Amino acid sequence: xxxRTIFLQxxxxxxxxxxxxxxxxxxxxxxxxxxxxxxxLDAHELPDNLLDRPVAVSASDQAGRTSEVNxxxxxxxxxxxxxxxxxxxxxxxxxxxxxxxxxxxxxxxVAEQQYPVRRHVALKIxxxxxxxxxxxxxxxxxxxxxxxxxxxxxxSVLDAGTTKSGRPYFVMELVRGVPITEFCQRRQLxxxxxxxxxxxxxxxxxxxxxxGVIHRDLKPSNILVTLHDVIPVVKVIDFGVAKAIxxxxxxxxxxxxxxAMIGTPLYMSPEQAEMSxxxxxxxxxxxxxxxxxxxxxxxxxxxxxxxxNTASIDEVRRIIREEDPPKPSTRLTTLxxxxxxxxxxxxxxxxxxxxxxxGDLDWIVMKALEKDRSRRYESASAMAEDVKxxxxxxxxxxxxxxxxxxxxxxxxxxxxxxxxxxxxxxAMFLGTAISLWQAAVAVTERNEKDQALQKAVRLQREADQxxxxxxxxxxxxxxxxxxxxxxxxxxxxxxxxxxxxxxxAATRRQPNYYNAxxxxxxxxxxxxxxKLAADxxxxxxxxxxxxxxxxxxGIPQLFLFNGDLESFRAYCRDLINQSEQRSEGVSIAVxxxxxxxxERRFDVQTFATRMEEMxxxxxxxxxxxxxxxxxxxxxxxxxxxxKDASKPPSEEHLTAAKETPKKDRDLDRDRSAEPDQTASQPxxxxxxxxxxxxxxxxxxxxxxxxxxxxYCVFYPRGAALYVAGLAHLRADHFKLAVxxxxxxxxxxxxxxxxxxxxxxxxxxxxAGETEKSRQALASAKAALDQWADEIYSxxxxxxxxxxIDWLEAQLLYREASILxxxxxxxxxxxxxxxxxxxxxxxxxxxxxxxxx
Amino acid sequence: MKEDVxxxxxxxxxxxxxxxxxxLPLVYDELRSLAAIKMTRESAEQTLQPTALVxxxxxxxxxxxxxxxxxxxxxxxxxxxxSMRRILIEQxxxxxxxxxxxxxxxxxxxxxxxxxxxxxxxxxxALDEALNRLALVDPNLARLVxxxxxTGLTIDETAxxxxxxxxxxxRNWAYARAWLRREMEESD
Lengths: 852, 188
Prior knowledge:
The complex is a heterodimer of chains A (852) and B (188).
Chain A: H1 3-12, H2 16-27, H3 31-45, E1 57-59, H4 68-73, E2 90-91, E3 94-102, E4 106-113, E5 119-126, H5 132-148, E6 157-162, E7 168-173, E8 178-179, H6 180-186, H7 191-210, E9 223-228, E10 231-236, H8 241-245, H9 251-260, H10 270-274, H11 282-298, H12 305-310, H13 313-322, H14 328-337, H15 339-342, H16 351-357, H17 360-368, H18 380-391, H19 403-412, H20 415-444, H21 449-492, H22 496-509, H23 514-526, H24 530-542, H25 555-561, H26 565-581, H27 588-594, H28 604-620, H29 634-646, H30 651-656, H31 662-679, H32 684-697, H33 710-714, H34 717-730, H35 734-746, H36 756-767, H37 770-793, H38 803-821, H39 829-842
Antiparallel strand pairs in A: 2-3, 3-4, 4-5, 5-7, 6-7, 8-9, 9-10
Helix pairs in contact in A: 1-3, 7-11, 7-18, 11-17, 14-16, 16-21, 17-18, 20-21, 21-22, 21-23, 22-23, 23-24, 24-25, 25-26, 25-38, 28-34, 29-31, 34-35, 34-36, 35-36, 36-37, 36-38, 37-38, 37-39
Chain B: H1 2-13, H2 19-41, E1 47-48, H3 50-62, H4 70-101, E2 114-115, H5 118-137, H6 139-151, H7 155-162, H8 166-187
């Protein structure tokens, strides 16, 4: 046997006797071998092995100076902390056995306590640079409080003292665990499991706070997880230690002290970073809990380690005090996009997390991380409560508890759920009422007593069953939700098959849940499986999916594309009705859907007029889209929208609509102006209108204070021009159609602009310009061809343009081709292949070829 | 430049025996200049983390390709570890000579000014020699130490680069660590 195998085998044996025995047996008479192995084993046990931390270097100008800063910074290569105690040394009544940790503060050993009881403890020796008497004094002051802490999730501090070389040390319950973040990562714990561990931490901290002990240094390396049998148990260590070591910092000591804490400012609260002498209280620990939760959710700290490593001390302090970290969900999104962190194993979190975190968990974390400590959670248990509320899907307390939010939270779970639940609850109450009444009757009519009681019992049983049903319903709902969330995560990662399977399972688990259907539909849309998507959307619509959600724009186009005229008409009619009910002008998106069909079922003249009004607004606010990332107050947007709807036709509008019969125009004006008159004060409307007109008379002097309407901010001008062009085409304003469509093709910023070609071809055709119409049709074909090619040669699920654009381009090209050549364009073989590829990825074999 | 390294990594993947030797100089140069930039730009109190340096070099040379596989990265890290070792050793040697000569020349900050405390240069040179001797016993152990010490890879990451199990890596590490310590204590 080589020294290597013997050495490694000996390491496995923990007791000295067993080890000795093994060595004697393994080495036999070979003294040289035995000596070599012994030396290796000694070397293994020696503390401060150079290799225990990767090399770290600092700039040379500072290297010669033996300041605290540098001895810490360079510590990895030298004797780091100037602690002479090592394995074998006796410290007080403890004997050091094994070094298990090293940090900015000093070294941690496993030590053996000889009396009064023999046991193993953790012993932490504090590095030089602190006055031992002060440290011990401060610890003594808090010792009483520390001693009364008794909580399963807190590792008790047992003792403190001074070593022979004058270093303070602390003795603690020995916890053989791993930092909580590492534990979660290694086991890839689910969100729920992470949150449950987290609430345990909260309870431990709460207990300490109740006993008057503040931790001050909560961070993963102080929160260990051990396994008791198979149950993970959290242990918060170092309570009372941070206060004893740390003390109020003066300017003179700020830098050295701060440097001494390098590695920890990631978890430091703003008030601690401020070092103003403001006393640290329990709310600093709440901040620490916030950072911890952030890390459990995202795998990273609110401020990036990398950044703190490269920033100056003052900069780090400024960041902590002033900068708002990104919300956890935002961080998760950017993490996913950034490959540099991708490689870092610690930062991988289960895909499930990213979606679940958005919303409530964001708020919980951000409330704990408030810079102003009075805005944080009042207590650790309040924070734990909120996490529990999240887990049981109740409204959380973080963020102002507006009624709307609570309602939103409830409604989120789904319309069907609410309706069903209220029916069942009603049934339950009725049942109870009837049984009570029956009981009363039974008392008065003694001869019917038995019968009545029986009935009461039966009714009670029915009520119980109803309750059970509600519970089961809620459970299925929850399961479906989890499946949908997981499906989304898969879809984001382009694992189409897994995403499809999850969504499908969700539709089976809870067939009344529209989200399951609409999510599956949007997956199918991404894959170009239009028919399947349309079917699922139809289902979702039946179940009440909201139509004004931009994610659902394009559903009518989908119906039309699949030749389902009836659904197309019904859906468009619905959209228009909704706009009218809300007293809003019809939106661009709605008009866009409605004008997609050549049949004139809708009031296309109004659409054309309305589009021209909106185009005029685009011209008034040419820079509106630059503000698209500014904060927008939703309420104001709504007001703008209403005002816009009420505006009388401008001059441009009149030129644009000159082909419009006067009757229509007046009708339009009357209808859109009507709701505003009821809403605004008398006279005000006129003033507004006058303003608006005068602005338009003089476009060189736009009103600086006026805010652009929301659609100018959020809708690409090119797309608006395209919709306007289409509206004119449908309204038989062919010249205007040509004008607007050509303008839209000039909008280089609009990525999808080529979709204007087929419409342009039709507009030219109808205007009698045959040659230009042929050219436009050829351009349309070329654009379609190129997109089809790109789609064909890309991996499944990647489209060069937005799916709505792609769908409309095909739709309108088909229409143009029929109009101009009399032929329906042939089915593109490439696209058929793409669909087949997509279907095969979904792992379903039961689709017949005409279903896709 | 970017293409080059990606191409070389692909060539290594496809078994081109020449490729690793083409990779090393590129990675070396990149790390050297990155270190120099860091040292001039950033505050003196800061420590330079080789891990961060190597990751940054990877991003600059190979780019943020999400699909980059670990095996592919493995070759890169192996080259980076060797480069880091060379850079630091060369620089420690130069320091030592300069000290002996006693002439302190004022220069612009350069990678040569990436410094360890004076005594640390001796330690590092001793480690370098011990590592050379370890490579004679088992070259894989020396590579393991390079990866762990000079680029700060974790056990798991190192295991991936070397293509062995984490358990084996952990055992090898324990042995190499003790072996080097013994070696360095003896030569003291």
